[in-house]
Specification:
This protein is mainly α. It contains 17 helices and no strands.
């Protein structure tokens, strides 16, 4: 016969029970907060604020109560979710400070440190909106410090990677490229240290994409550095990151989300360079995008980006007087449209490219070539009589011919 378990001391249970009640009261407001606009009057959150204050008081008075740490962290993350959803930086700061306090109480428990790392990323984004980039950078350094102290913890590594990827975008927007470079270096190191963690690789892809997209926008607006000579193309930033993004996307096991991200980056470069007149370099990156679309993991978003890139580049080639190259590229787009005849986006890109080429050939007086492509457009429209966008393109072409 085994001994009966000793009854738990009711007095020792009271703090944990009270903490559960407070955390549940906070949780009840999380979904409600998501349905409310930013700038919610504080009175509407009085119950959540009161419950959070009660939870902090319990944690301060009874820090040794078994199970209390988990409940306190849960309540703090719920409170932070309210602040994040309604855009209240005061709530985010309070939740972050509480988690920082909890993390100091137990160095061996990974839970508060993981929650603090995630909360620091939320605070970084909130500080960027409210106070500007310098405060966001200070908060990011908190994430780095946690990551260094908790080396090897995959959850902390994921939070650090998410913060670094976001910091790349924030730094570039704030015209702080050196900080963006440091964040990219952090991402590379995180992935090298724990290559098996897919979320870290995904966040590195996001960070690289943010750098690539920024460089592509600069290319499109003509703000790149000047060429060193008339025979050399203008210096283009972001090419190193673009190559790294493609490599990350292709690395086994291939992740479809990263393939989509690389396709977005390549599309941005093809469009930006083509708009700038760097059509030869744009064509090389179009070929990279075409190769990416051949991967088994490449889905409809990649093919649509390939079709849109082809249309944009055909337009740029026509404007540059390189009609023969535009016609060759049109053959690729037409073939893609035939294979994916059920995708309206690809068909629309095909139709718009047809119209551009018809008009270009007509301007050059090459009516035979114009008529061949016009017939191709008519066949496309006849195959999709329900698609009004295709009909509009064909109608515009007929009007342009009048």
């Amino acid at each position: 016969m085994t001994d009966a378990p000793e009854p738990q001391n009711p007095r020792s249970q009271r703090p944990l029970d009270a903490a559960h009640i407070a955390a549940e009261a906070i949780g009840a407001h999380v979904q409600h907060a998501s349905d409310l606009p930013a700038g919610l009057p504080p009175a509407d959150l009085s119950e959540a604020r009161t419950a959070f204050g009660r939870l902090r008081e319990i944690a301060d008075l009874h820090p040794q109560t078994e199970g209390l740490m988990r409940v306190a962290v849960c309540g703090a993350t719920r409170y932070l979710a309210i602040g994040r959803r309604i855009g209240d930086i005061g709530i985010v700061r309070d939740a972050h400070l509480f988690l920082a306090t909890l993390s100091l109480r137990d160095e061996d428990d990974p839970l508060p440190h993981r929650a603090l790392a995630e909360a620091s990323v939320d605070l970084m984004l909130a500080e960027a909106r409210q106070s500007g980039f310098p405060r966001a950078l200070d908060t990011y350094r908190t994430v780095v410090a946690i990551s260094l102290a908790r080396g090897g913890d995959p959850n902390v590594a994921c939070a650090h990677a998410k913060g670094a990827a976001n910091l790349v975008a924030l730094a570039l927007e704030a015209d702080a490229p050196l900080e963006a470079d440091r964040a990219l270096a952090d991402l590379a190191r995180l992935e090298a240290d724990q290559p098996e963690i897919l979320p870290v690789r995904q966040q590195r892809g996001r960070g690289l994409f943010n750098r690539v997209a920024h460089a592509a926008r600069r290319a499109e607006t003509g703000t790149l550095s000047a060429a060193t000579s008339a025979s050399q193309p203008a210096a283009v930033g972001g090419l190193t990151e673009l190559a790294a993004l493609i490599e990350v996307a292709r690395r086994a096991p291939v992740d479809p989300d990263l393939v989509d991200l690389a396709a977005e980056g390549l599309f941005a470069f093809v469009t930006g360079l083509g708009t700038r007149g760097e059509v030869a370099l744009a064509r090389r990156h179009y070929d990279d995008l075409s190769s990416l679309a051949q991967l088994p993991e490449a889905g409809p978003p990649v093919r649509r980006r390939l079709a849109d890139a082809a249309f944009n580049l055909i337009t740029d080639l026509c404007e540059s007087g390189e009609t023969e190259l535009a016609t060759l590229l049109y053959g690729d787009l037409s073939g893609l449209s035939v294979v994916h005849d059920d995708d309206p986006s690809i068909c629309l890109a095909h139709a718009k490219a047809s119209a551009n080429l018809v008009l270009t050939h007509r301007d050059r007086g090459d009516h035979a070539a114009a008529n061949i492509i016009a017939d191709d457009l008519r066949s496309l429209v006849f195959a999709h009589p329900e698609n009004m966008e295709l009909m509009e393109v064909a109608t515009f072409l007929d009007l342009a011919d009048v």
